[in-house]
Amino acid sequence: MSNDAHLREDKVDGGVAYDGSFLKIHRDHVRLPNGKITSREYIRHPGAVAILPVLDDGRILLERQFRYPNDRVFIEFPAGKIDAGEDPFESAKRELEEETGYTASEWHFVTTIHNAIAYSDEHLDLYLARGLKAGEAKLDEGEFVECFTATLDEALAWVRNGEISDVKTIIGIFWLDKLRSGVWTPE
Q1: What is the residue range of 27's domain?
Q2: Which sequence ranges form a coiled-coil region, renumbered to this chain (predicted)?
């Protein structure tokens, strides 16, 4: 990678503008590469995981969940926030079981994505889960999720027609398609 000094923005001052129970919004003044000062507002996020669960017959496990900011139900892969001090892999195992009831005997790290780079430091670690065994979901208080299965081709069609618009799910579906074709392999 080349030297990026000509693109860097450096913090002059700033701090927390809002400190919520889940998100922290920061407002900083930064010096641009041309020397001018401007402000940046951004959200600090603890990070999250998303799981790409593949059943033995090749179908994928998805869920439907209402997302309040967009006032609609989305089709998504199981996912959740990494708890303070928690290893992301342990978070992935916990979230899969809590949201779907499934456990997996085979796990592979897939990739890390940054889903909102203009206004947040949030990242998601994606994990492939195979060797799934059904169990009972252990949803958090106030969490309502409907699980279902689909073929990868159905999911790809839903991405194409806009029925799936969640970015982590789209990226996960594209990864599964590349893995299925043998073009890419997980770690």
Answers
A1: 5-44
A2: none
Structure tokens at 160: 């194409």
pTM above 0.90, yes or no: yes
Same domain, 22 and 98: no
**DSSP string spanning 73-127?**
EEEE--EEEPPTT--HHHHHHHHHHHHHS-EEEEEEEEEEE-S-TTTB---EEEE
The encoded tokens of residue 79 equal 């996912």
Residues 6+ apart with CB under 8 A from 4: none
Angle (nearest 5°) at CA 33 between 30 and 38: 30
Residue 176 sits in a domain of what CATH number? 3.90.79.10
Give the C-alpha separation, 18 to 16, whole Å.
Answer: 6
Task: Say whether 90 is catalytic.
Answer: no
Q: Which of 76, 122, 141, 154 is catalytic?
A: 141
Closest residue by Cα to residue 65 from 6, 121, 135, 148: 148
Which of 59, 61, 72 has its CA nearest to residue 95? 61
Report DSSP state, residue 54.
B
Q: Are 98 and 83 in contact (CB under 8 A)?
A: no
The pLDDT-based confidence of 1 (bands split at 50, 70, 90) is low
**Strand partners of residue 59:** none
96 and 79: one domain? yes
